Amino acid sequence: MNYKKLFAMQKELDHHIETKHQLQNENLFDRKVLALLVELGELANETRCFKFWSLKPLSARETILEEFVDGVHFILSLGLECAFEQESDFIGHTNGKQSLNEQFLFVFEKINQFRNSKEIKDFKELVHAYLHLGDLLGFTAEDIENAYIDKNEVNYERQQQGY
Ligand SMILES: O=c1ccn([C@H]2C[C@H](O)[C@@H](COP(=O)(O)OP(=O)(O)OP(=O)(O)O)O2)c(=O)[nH]1
Predict the structure, then answer these.
(1) Quick check: CB of 14 below 6 Å from ligand 1?
(2) Which atom of ligand 1 is found nearest the CA of 151?
(3) The pLDDT of residue 92 is above 90
(4) What are the residue ranges spanned by the domains of the chain?
(5) Which positions, given as ranges, span the membrane (predicted)?
(6) pLDDT band at 57, cuts 50/70/90?
(7) Could you tell me the distance, in angstroms and rounded to a whole number, from the CA of residue 70 to the centre of ligand 1?
(8) Which of 11, 14, 15, 73 maximizes ligand 1 atoms within 8 Å of its Cβ, making it the mutation to test the pocket?
């Protein structure tokens, strides 16, 4: 994963959005945390992994990947809020869970842990937990980077359309 490139793209997009909505002087940290929690819920919904009461199939892979990279946007954006973009060592991993259901719950925990500490250690644990979730969903680093780049572009277009 080319973190430097992704952080740079995210920085530009965030700057564009914050300027357009005149939010440069606002603290957006907690709103971004809530946005990430909501995106994670939307992602879980598309996978239907917890819906033991239903036989409907999960959404198309593309839809799930798009939801996944919405989360990547907000994770990077939170990293930028904490000035972690110079950090280059994201190698390593957090012990992941075996089932999707457990891993979703684990990522929710990691988001809250990072929200409370704002420490780089907890940010990295969140990144690793989120990537393990991507792994369980069958996404490679290349899938994620390409889908991130596509959605980043869509986000500019939406801002242009007065979204
Ligand atoms: O400061 C920001 C704010 C938003 N985004 C991105 C993240 C995500 O990729 C998108 C917001 O998610 P989505 O496209 O699902 O927006 P929505 O308003 O929830 O869409 P919809 O109303 O279609 O559900 O905007 C950023 O990157 N930085």
Answers:
(1) yes
(2) 9
(3) no
(4) 3-160
(5) none
(6) very high
(7) 7
(8) 73
